[in-house]
Write a structure and sequence with these properties.
Order of helices and strands: EEEHE
Helix content: 10-25%
Radius of gyration: 9 Å
Number of helices: 1
Strand order of the largest sheet: 3-2-1-4
Structural class: alpha+beta
Number of domains: 1
Length: 48
């Protein structure tokens, strides 16, 4: 599972930046997460 990280937080389910790891938008495929991150200027982080 992957999430998109921006600044000091993550992109949440509602599309806003959040620091709460329990409410992040989850991508099951790294390629989809990478495409989204490239569009908004973030980076991909694997969730464990």
């Amino acid at each position: 599972m992957y999430a998109v990280k921006v600044l000091h937080g993550y992109i949440g389910e509602d599309g806003q930046r959040t620091r709460d790891k329990n409410r992040v938008r989850i991508f099951l495929n790294r390629n989809y997460a990478k495409q989204f991150a490239d569009r908004i200027g973030g980076r991909v982080k694997e969730l464990r």
